[in-house]
Amino acid sequence: YNISPILTSGSMVGASAGVIAILVAGALYMPNMPVRLWGIFEVKYWMLAAGLVLLDVLNLTSANAGGHIAHLGGAIVAFFFIRSMRAGNEWNVYLFQIIDFVRSWLQPQQRKRKKGFSFGERNYKKSGTKATSPKASNSDDTARMNEILDKIKASGYDSLSKEEKAFLFKISKD
Q: Please, where are the H alpha helices in 30-133?
């Protein structure tokens, strides 16, 4: 289906619009990077991209106008992508949110298991152990962990004793 009566009916095949989008995005991101053409000519990246976009604009009236419009569309998307990336907006965040939303609709829902008959919660306590409040032990562990991390920052991981390394390993598992 054509959106313009000037264009002939036909199908669009290929990924050239995506390739142009990547080329233009690269040229906008690092415009002065040198690029060698055929291993002989060295041009700046922005010149290569600008030349290809100019060729697409000049060939809009050719037989493959739809392809050139697609190339220009890729260049425009690349321009807005780099512009929004420089402003601190990342499109991939929105893309992943959409993918997660669609995936949540496509995945089968897990059924809740019916609980069987139970006599209540079972709390087993090891004999000979002293119960401590979780907050007290967590704050002690946090303080010790901060001391060890400060030591790593000051003199590196290799300066830790075996006991300190074991403590960090234990904390990372909890």
A: 45-58, 65-86, 91-106
